[in-house]
Amino acid sequence: MGKGLRRAVVAVLSAVAAWAQPRGMADFPGRIFLGQFGEGWFAEAYALPQGDSLWAGVLLRLPYSTLLFERDGDRFRAVVHVNVEFVDSIGVVRRRLEYRDTVWTANYELTQSRDSTLLRALHGRVPWGTVRARLRLLLQQQELRAQELELSDARGQPQWSSPLVAAPLQEQIRPFVLGGALPFGATAARILLWSPRLRVHERWNYRCIQLRLPEERFWDSVEELSGQLRRLDPMRLEVESGAEGIVLRPVPDTLEGWAECWLPAAMLVPGVYELQLLSEGAGSDTLRWRFRVRWHDMPVSLRRFGYAVRVMQYLLTDQEQEALQRTPEAERWQRLWRYWKRRDPTPQTAYNEAMTVYFRRVDHAYFAFQSVNEPDGALTDRGKVYILYGPPTRTERELPVASAPREVWTYDRLQRRFVFELAADGRWRLQAVENLSQ
User: Fold this and answer.
1) Which of 176, 114, 178, 184 is nearest to 360 (CA)?
2) Are residues 383 and 350 in the same domain?
């Protein structure tokens, strides 16, 4: 076989292997699957007195990455089966609730996505003395995931172990459903609270204090937040869940003990916080709830300092990159944070959109442009262009008979066209950048 023909065969086979490879199936640095990175599902449980029984509700967020999809024709299908058991203090099941559904998508990448989620609520009346809810995600009766959530205190009295953290909307309550956490990047949050100790005629104030930072020390400490608690009229909650997520609607009723505060969250950084409610009445009662600010969709490529600095090679000079890599361990996250803070389009908030967009593109490029010969798609020519400029307006693929395969990316907003060619070694090389404005 001649060299020219041999080169053509290798190029075509490499192209076919690269294009046929399922997106998102390869290992991330450190052998971590992107879709499985993180905390999996999120669940919250709340109980309220209702006559001689309890109303119990379980809120559930299931990222697609926690489900098991299989191909069905030209689409992908996942069967969802969630079982909830409400049990008493000696473990006797007092009630069971089940949720079954089928999730469909035509996009393989969505099957590995942490951003695409299924939000559902399961609720009903349970006997007094029910102390916890046991959740199980099942596949053909086999348990995939499980979690227990407390509903009552040691005396069997209903108790909220965490506040209900929701989007800052006036007319309806839309919980974030992140395990009682507030998502990092939210500018504000509506915090709904219930306790029989929130007496009707007393005035209460709140303090929000930071208890602990996460291990990735990007951020400085946060100043204490404080304000007046807003008391709510007696009510109950009606729950709706569907394609738009979970909505809780307050309905006038006889149950007292409700309050809320609107928390300015723009400067809150990931970590653990305590919300303290301080009574102005006699006895100076104090209620405490802990909650987290959670960066649940933090880019995977940003979680490891060494890899984060490595993929910043498209922005840094060799000297800058070497200086970052040599930073003492105690200072390195702060140094990285300061670099991106100078490029933050909204410096008045803690959330850095520029940094987040960059590393989300790295996550995508790692999988989308990898092949047998280029295992890290973020460090390829196509990965570089994608990370710097985002997704192209149009992509054209050519498999000419007499020359190497080509891929052409057109960016309308840049008025540029990037031409990649598959080399004999099976790597895509940037061959030309064409200016379309001339």
Assistant:
1) 114
2) yes
